[in-house]
Amino acid sequence: MPIAAAVTESDLKTDCRHVRWDRPCTPHKRRGKVCATCDEHDPIVHRVLMVKLAATGDVLRTTAFLPAIHRTWPRAKVTWLTRRSAVGLFDGNPLVDEVLATDDAVTAARLATETFDVVLCPDADPDAAALAAMAHGRQRRGYVRDAAGRVVALGEGAARWLAMGLSDAAKRQNRETYQHLVADVLGLDRALVAEPILEPSAADAAFARAFVDGLGGQGPLVGLNTGAGGRWAYKVWTPEHQQAFVRLCTGAGARVLLLGGPEEVQRHRELLAANVGLPVFDGGNHNPYGRFAALVERCRVVVTSDSLCVHVAAARKVPAVVLFGPTSAAEIELYGRGAKLVPPGFDCLCCYLPRCDKVPHCQAAIEPAAVWAAVQPWLAGAPANR
């Protein structure tokens, strides 16, 4: 039996997106393609590194720039550098080729040995800026950190965003979205910025479908995101208001799906215990990102603070009613789906303080009846499976 000829160095198309240096590529394994004659050759023209750390919600909303990146640098290979906690956001993302985690020693070796055509750093975060400066890049946009430890803005848009981040007054006065502001930071066309990208797997979608189908009841499903992470205590709606809102929903014939993370386990238990016999269900507190997104997608509308859930809803095209207080309502893009609720009578909103001494604090001033009124327009005409 003849032995297949080995791939020679002259046969190997080393610029191809499909190349896996330690094993055969997918076209070869699945379809028997041979490198020398392969009609699936996909040459990489540009190599782009995005350095984006921050909270997971912030990382997710920055995926909205991926279409603009690919339009600006056609046939790009996009590498995204982020914290370990955010790596799972990119599972199934067709516009990101690989993800590097900051806590991996191999990442440091990669940054020391590879050269990128462009390094993008959209945040004036000192750690991100240091990584952007460390990476070898023919071009850099956004921010780097210099030898004196200073964060350096690399353009007019970056300088504006840096100044805004250092001024409470500028933050409060701003009326532009994060997408517009950061497009200017990175020198991208604002018109090319799209929506966040989070793709549940087929298994995640099937799980969510079966889970919701098994809940019982006929009313529309309203998602209630019960937490907001630990950084800003007063981004979270009060337990009393959440309970009152649940009663308004169920009293009008809607079902409620509780959405949250590990920090909200006790809150979910309390809400469930207070609503025994009513169509209030726990979506779980330990869902991977894809499964969480699939559950959000089964809701007709979600109610949430300014948190990861806002951007998950945007990625899955689900309306979101968003409650604001210590963070900027203007910066959040809802893409025409949902509503922003800001408490009246506060001149200190968008303070970005982790805690404050006002009583009631801003989130406590958002009344359940106002939230229910904002939800109702999104319940009509939604898909039956929600």
What number of domains? 2
Mean pLDDT: 92
Major β-sheet, in short? 6 strands, mixed
What's the end-to-end separation, in Å?
59 Å
Q: Structural class of the helix and strand makeup?
A: alpha/beta
Overall 3D shape: globular
How would you summarize what this structure contains?
With about 375 residues, the protein is α/β, with parallel strands linked by helices.
Structural overview:
The strands form three sheets. A six-stranded mixed β-sheet has the order 3-2-1-5-7-8. Strands 11-10-9-12-13-14 form a six-stranded parallel β-sheet, sandwiched between helices. The protein has helices spanning 26-31, 56-62, 66-72, 105-113, 126-134, 156-165, 168-173, 178-185, 202-213, 239-251, 265-274, 289-297, 308-315, 368-375; strands spanning 46-51, 76-82, 98-101, 115-116, 118-121, 136-137, 140-145, 151-153, 221-225, 255-259, 280-282, 301-305, 320-323, 338-341. Mean pLDDT is 92; it is low at 1-5. The chain folds into two domains: 46-192, Glycogen Phosphorylase B (Rossmann fold); 202-378, Rossmann fold (3-Layer(aba) Sandwich), CATH 3.40.50.2000. It has 14 helices and 14 strands. With 386 residues, it is of the alpha/beta class.
